[in-house]
Amino acid sequence: MRQNIDRIDRELVRLMAERGRYVHEASRFKANPAQVEAPERAEAVVRKAMTLAEENGLSPKIAENTYRTMVRSFIDYEQGVFAKAVAAGQTPWKK
Ligand SMILES: C=C(O[C@@H]1C=C(C(=O)O)C=C[C@H]1O)C(=O)O
């Protein structure tokens, strides 16, 4: 049983890393920190995860808590990537 949990954790973290690379990419299309935050989109992602949870027999509360924390962390990460790009003069709308 724990072997299965460990296997799933390896897969989840691999998928989170892949997700992170796309979040990193998304920052290139943002013009300011408010666009990085994109609260409506973030909320839609959480809601979608809750619907998917219901469809898959997972508690929507677990999906909600997990996704709120995860998306918040990705936004913070993306804000960091964005701030670095601005500091380096590498903002795409200036190219
Ligand atoms: C990745 C994006 O930026 C932020 C991070 C999101 C996420 O991790 O799902 C969603 C919306 C934004 O808050 C995006 O706008 O798509």
TrEMBL record:
GO terms for molecular function: chorismate mutase activity. Its EC number is 5.4.99.5. The keyword Oxidoreductase does not apply. This is chorismate mutase. Keywords: Isomerase. The lineage of its organism: Bacteria, Pseudomonadati, Pseudomonadota, Alphaproteobacteria, Hyphomicrobiales. Residues 1-82 form the Chorismate mutase domain. It holds the Pfam family CM_2. The keyword Isomerase applies.
